[in-house]
Amino acid sequence: MSNHLLRDIQHLEKRMLYFCTLVEENLTRAVESLEKHDEEKAMMVIAQEKQIDNLEIEIEEECLKILALHQPVAKDLRYIVAVLKINNDLERIGDMAAHIGERFLSLGYCLEKSYFNKLTQCARDVRRILHNCLDALIGLDKELAQQILLWDTDIDTFHEEFFNEIQQEIKENPQDVHVLLNLLSISKQLERISDHATNIAEDVIYLVDGEIVRHSG
Question: How many domains in the chain?
Answer without folding.
Answer: 1
